[in-house]
Amino acid sequence: MMSETIRVSKEVKRELLKIMGELQIERGERVDFNDVIEFLLSCYKRKNPELLRRLIGMIPNNSMKDLEEERRREVELEKEKHSI
User: Fold this and answer.
1) What is the DSSP annotation of 11-55?
2) Within a domain: 5
3) Number of domains in the chain
4) What is the domain extent for residue 45?
5) Residue 38: C-alpha distances to residues 16, 29, 73 (Å)
6) For residue 2, which phi and psi values (nearest 5 degrees)?
7) Domain membership flag for residue 34
8) Out of 3, 12, 25, 56, which residue is the most buried by the measure of CB atoms under 10 Å away?
9) What is the pLDDT along the chain (84 residues), one digit of tens a residue?
């Protein structure tokens, strides 16, 4: 599997580590950031509102703003990359 690099704020990384710890306890095995992201994506796809509310509540507002800004920049870069 090819790996990619993504950037997250320190606050988001801290929250991902908390979720990682919870998953490790729940599963009884070591998990990595990829496992955490897959877990979060599966929750999103299942639209588990209670779990999503709990997880979203973990992320500080300034981290959400940072994520939104980073995503906006990524979209702009993609547009520039594909325009000739």
Assistant:
1) HHHHHHHHHHHHHHHHHTS---HHHHHHHHHHHHHHT-HHHHHHH
2) no
3) 1
4) 10-82
5) 12, 16, 23
6) -75, 140
7) yes
8) 12
9) 688 888 989 989 999 999 999 899 989 999 999 999 999 888 777 776 666 666 666 666 566 677 677 778 887 887 887 775
d(CA 82, CA 72): 16
Torsion of CA 23, 21, 58, 12, to 10 degrees: -110
Q: Helix, strand or coil for residue 78?
A: helix
What's this model's pTM, rounded to 2 decimal places?
0.55
Count of beta carbons in the 10 Å neighbourhood of residue 84: 3
Question: Sign of the CA dihedral 52, 55, 56, 57?
Answer: positive
